[in-house]
Amino acid sequence: DNRNFHNISLGQGQEIVAERAMDLSAKEGHWVILQNVHLVAKWLSTLEKKLEEYSEGSHENYRVFISAEPAGQPEYHIIPQGILDNAIKITNEPPTGMNANLHKSFLNFNQDTLEMCAKENEFKTILF
After folding, report:
1. CA-to-CA distance for 43 and 65, rounded, in angstroms?
2. Of 82, 97, 111, 122, which sits 20 to 30 A from 74 (CA to CA)?
């Protein structure tokens, strides 16, 4: 039910929308997903305070999910330590190397999908 799920892509002034969604969700037990938090570095301290504020006394079904791109170097790690310490973290890292990366990509296709390709010769050239 979309009324219980708030999906916000951050950036371009969406911080206010995110705060309102979090306020409502904490009271009514909704779920919020905040995508691309790496784009709103200046707002992350506010997010940390909001999460701390709602860590107690909010609805038992209230959940916040956060997504961000990984930082390339340690000096670009911008997510506050308080958020990281209190979160369950899930990572999805691409395989190392082109061969492993291509192999993982092709595992997404089953044999039926491969045989349905309209340009069979071109597709086979890519595979081999």
Report:
1. 16
2. 97
Cα–Cα distance, 41 to 11 (Å, whole number):
10
Contact at 8 Å (CB) between 14 and 8?
A: yes
Cβ neighbors of 2 (< 8 A, separation 6 or more) are none
Q: Could you tell me the pTM of the whole model?
A: 0.69
Residues 6+ apart with CB under 8 A from 86: 51, 55
Q: What is the pLDDT along the chain (128 residues), one digit of tens a residue?
A: 568 999 999 988 999 999 999 999 999 999 999 999 999 999 999 999 999 999 999 999 999 999 998 877 888 788 899 998 888 888 776 667 777 777 777 777 777 776 777 776 776 666 65
